């Protein structure tokens, strides 16, 4: 993600207009580029200033209801003239992983590229629409709603929140490992925050009947942390429950739903050693 894209997400985030997926992308980029913190601070100050323009008063019930109705309808409606983009099937790409099936092509290259471009274009237009709505709604909320009501309307992604807390911790520890020639996995943890966040970029594509499973390996024994999903860019972010410094965090490819017996059925496609 470049700085321009980060600025766009930061401005939208200050108005609570990001989807959970965008929250993860924003937090991952922020953790990678702490020098962009001044952008986040400036956007936060701007949003906070909106709330100080007038004294707080109890909002009329119809106003609150109309804002909530607008937000709910915006999550379902597409911009004018836009049709819903078709789902993009993905083909497996797990060469070199023991036990994984051979790759099969799901689409001709040109068709797949066109579908991906359509989805990405739709996402940008939808985000622009959300941003415009959020800007209007945020002003009304800041001027008319009490702090308790504003807090209740704020969407929170637990992974993004955990990553932000860990990144700001004085005892932040970070370790990264490359995999598959292009991918990179990173582990951020803080004992003070008692939280650990795992990020991975460039995961292989999977068929519909396979999932990624996250593991802690301690003293040579794997402990499943459950299935993790990748977004359209093949990135993922997850809180690693039960992590202890010195553990290895690994990912395997398993049948859909994860390993049936709590043990890996394939060799890891990546491993990050925190020792």
Automatic annotation (TrEMBL):
- Tell me, what's a Pfam family for it? RskA_C
Question: Any idea where this protein resides?
Answer: Cell membrane; Membrane
GO CC: one term?
Answer: plasma membrane
Gene Ontology process terms (BP): regulation of translation
Question: Would you tell me the protein name for this molecule?
Answer: Regulator of SigK
Please name the GO terms that the record assigns under molecular function: sigma factor antagonist activity
Membrane found in the keyword field = yes
Q: Which UniProt keywords apply?
A: Cell membrane, Membrane, Transcription, Transcription regulation, Transmembrane, Transmembrane helix
Where's the Anti-sigma K factor RskA C-terminal domain? 133-269
Q: Does the keyword Membrane apply?
A: yes
Please name the InterPro entries in this protein's record.
Anti-sigma-K/W_factor, Anti_sigma_zinc_sf, RskA_C
Q: How does it sit in the membrane?
A: Single-pass membrane protein
């Amino acid at each position: 993600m470049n700085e321009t894209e980060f600025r766009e997400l930061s401005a939208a985030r200050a108005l609570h207009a990001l989807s959970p997926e965008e929250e993860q992308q924003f937090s991952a980029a922020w953790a990678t580029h702490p020098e962009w913190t001044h952008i986040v601070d400036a956007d936060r100050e701007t949003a906070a200033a909106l709330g100080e323009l007038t004294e707080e008063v109890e909002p009329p019930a119809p106003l609150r209801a109309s804002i909530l109705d607008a937000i709910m309808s915006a999550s379902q409606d597409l911009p004018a003239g836009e049709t819903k983009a078709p789902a993009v099937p993905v083909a497996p790409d797990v060469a070199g992983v023991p036990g994984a099936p051979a790759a099969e092509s799901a689409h001709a290259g040109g068709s797949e590229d066109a579908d991906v471009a359509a989805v990405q274009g739709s996402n940008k237009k939808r985000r622009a629409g959300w941003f415009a709505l959020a800007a209007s709604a945020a002003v009304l909320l800041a001027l008319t709603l009490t702090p308790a009501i504003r807090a209740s309307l704020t969407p929170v992604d637990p992974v993004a929140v955990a990553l932000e807390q860990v990144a700001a911790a004085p005892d932040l520890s970070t370790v990264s490992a490359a995999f598959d020639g292009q991918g990179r996995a990173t582990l951020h943890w803080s004992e003070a925050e008692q939280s650990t966040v795992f990020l991975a970029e460039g995961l292989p594509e999977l068929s519909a009947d396979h999932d990624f499973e996250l593991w802690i390996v301690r003293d040579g024994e794997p402990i499943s942390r459950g299935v993790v999903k990748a977004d359209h860019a093949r990135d993922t972010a997850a809180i690693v429950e039960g992590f202890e410094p010195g553990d290895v965090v690994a990912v395997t490819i398993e049948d859909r739903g994860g390993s049936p017996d709590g043990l890996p059925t394939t060799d890891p496609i990546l491993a990050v050693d925190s020792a």
